Amino acid sequence: MIRIITVVCLMVQALNSGSAQPTFSKDVASIIFNHCTTCHRQGEIGPMALTNYEQVKNWASTIRYVTSNKIMPPWKADEAYSRFVDENYLSSSQIKTISDWVNAGSPLGNASETPKLPQYPTNSLLGTPDLILPFKRSYVHKGNGTDEYRYFVIPTGITEAKKVKAVELRPGNKKIVHHSLFFADQSGKAKEYDNKTLEYGFSVNDNADFRVTEVINHDQFPGYVPGQKPRNFPDGLAQILPANSDLVIQMHYAPWSVDEADSSTVNIFFAKENEIIDRTVKDYIMLPFNLVAGPLSFIIPANQVKKFEGVYTVPADISLVGIFPHMHLLGKNWEVYIENLDGTKTNLIKINDWDFNWQGAIILISTK
């Protein structure tokens, strides 16, 4: 009888030691630092800093809630459908680790086991830019509760074409800047529109003769959305910023209840002199003209759910660098794939619960 009791006690002890509660230093800090702190630190988009134990502990219950419900990190692509570079979602085991840690009272553990906080560049997520283009002056977004899409024209000042590896927006007012798109304009047309307005920049409402396609039909650089880190194009790839061109920025300002001013800055990174650029990155924007049923079908009757299908036939052999799904408030889900010539299908991206507040800019497809 004594032997049996001894064995049972040993088994219980083994089970207890194997299910030790997680601690911040050993288990949670690495998850937070790798998936949250990029945005949740001073000067970045996150509303609170998560750079040390005390900060994380103060928000422990909130962190448990938003991770358990997959609200944070804001990664919308279905990881079971396709994989990407810079994926930022938590695995089931990571979510459980955070939940177990909070339920246990958020213990620190052995402080010496806490990993070092990553080193972040100042005023950039990529390093020192080669060209910095600030707003000429502030613009006041009216607090009338409506979205605003405003265009700003910034002369680049470059006298010869440059090979661009990355474009990074540093929003001046993170409360109202929802997203931004970037275009290069050699025609001077955008500057003409800008000169017609008394306020800084211009919009469709300011110019009755303004045609959006005169701007967006130019090559588009990777855009900005809150929480997404810009990245350099892979080796050998770049986009071209033409000589004597203006950078045109389409800023989407979110609805706000009071007037808010914004003065943002764009950082541009060029290819190094010794890098051989043998391929130029181009973009293609699929508009309602690509709908199978034609552009006139781009209408949703009241109280109905409608599916839209668009097709683009690739005219030449290309390498696909990334994809940028974009919808507004009525959008619900996405699925994008390639129909190969041999009849097979290649998954690109699937978003099961589209959220207008979390739109991805260019996402480089991984080989994982």
Structure description:
- The protein starts with a helix and ends with a strand.
- With 368 residues, the chain is an alpha+beta fold.
- The N terminus is likely disordered.
- Strands 1-10-4-7-11 form a 5-stranded mixed beta sheet, with no helix packed on it. The protein has a 4-stranded antiparallel beta sheet with strand order 3-8-5-6, covered by helices on one side. The chain has a two-stranded antiparallel sheet with strand order 2-9.
- It is globular and about 65 Å long.
- The protein contains 7 helices and 15 strands.
- The chain folds into 2 domains: 112 residues, no CATH class; 150 residues, Sandwich (Jelly Rolls), CATH 2.60.120.310.
Question: What would CATH call the homologous superfamily of the largest domain?
Answer: Copper type II, ascorbate-dependent monooxygenase, N-terminal domain
- Tell me the overall shape: globular
Q: Helices and strands: which structural class?
A: alpha+beta
- Stated plainly, the CATH topology of the largest domain is called Jelly Rolls
C-alpha-based Rg, rounded: 25 Å
- Oligomer state of the chains in this structure: single chain
CATH architecture of the largest domain: Sandwich
The overall strand count is: 15
Strand arrangement across the biggest beta sheet: 1-10-4-7-11
The overall average pLDDT, rounded, is 87
